Amino acid sequence: MDDPIFKVKDTSFSYDGTPILKQVSCDFHKGVFYGILGPNGCGKTTFLDVMAGYSHPDAGCIYFSGKTLKKRSKTFLAQHIALVAQNYYINFPYTVEDVVMMGRYPHIPRFASPSELDYEIVTAAMEITGVLPFKKQYVTELSGGERQRTVFARGIAQDTGVLLLDEATSNLDINYTIHLLDRIKNRVKEKALTVISVFQDINLAAIYCDEMVFMDQGTIVAAGATDEMMDEILIEKVFKVKSEIRFEPFYQARQALFRTGSEQ
After folding, report:
1. Which fold is adopted by the domain 6-263?
2. Are 24 and 7 in contact (CB under 8 A)?
3. Of 14, 148, 179, 191, which is the most buried if we count CB atoms within 10 A?
4. All structural domains of the chain with their residue ranges
5. Does residue 1 have a pLDDT over 90?
6. What whole-number distance in Å separates Cα of residue 174 and Cα of residue 252?
């Protein structure tokens, strides 16, 4: 296998003295769709923030394309890594097109105006996410799902080799969730895009992810191929819930059936 595009080595991070990540180590390779899963508060979002370079670890090191994040400029990272957050608040009356164009800023020379190519990429991103019909509307006037799709479009327009998704489809209806994950999965296959996505829905992750990383209490409990991670004993260990794993031919993927109530 090729050298990892991300190499996370013994990385720790604390917030106000509270440990969030504890000596996390994991490799991520080019052209793979990864799912990050675990209980609420286990450090999933912080893990993505640290890999994006938004937060700096207290200890350990993160390598991106062979060099530590500290040795990469902010512009370089923005040209190569896009992060789509679940909760991104926009309080100013920017139009949808303005927000999506922000994804092109790392590629536009200082003091220059967006090129025709930039507008083409932005239009294509809006079309993919279904926000093109209201590109001139202010984002403050949109529904929560429409704003989330706008932020997703901005991440697509950034046109990076790595896409970090922090529960990026959790506010969307099932139609757009499937549509967007299908499009992203195709880019993984066709353009060797690396996707590292936080999921709450383990069955949805099992359909789209090539590999899974399970986290709990700031550490990585297990990581590997999705079929191997869809394991009843492992799921109970991480999520404290009993399940039965079955192969679902319709999805061509293993799925978890969870026991409820007195069956636990």
Report:
1. Rossmann fold (3.40.50)
2. no
3. 148
4. 6-263
5. no
6. 19
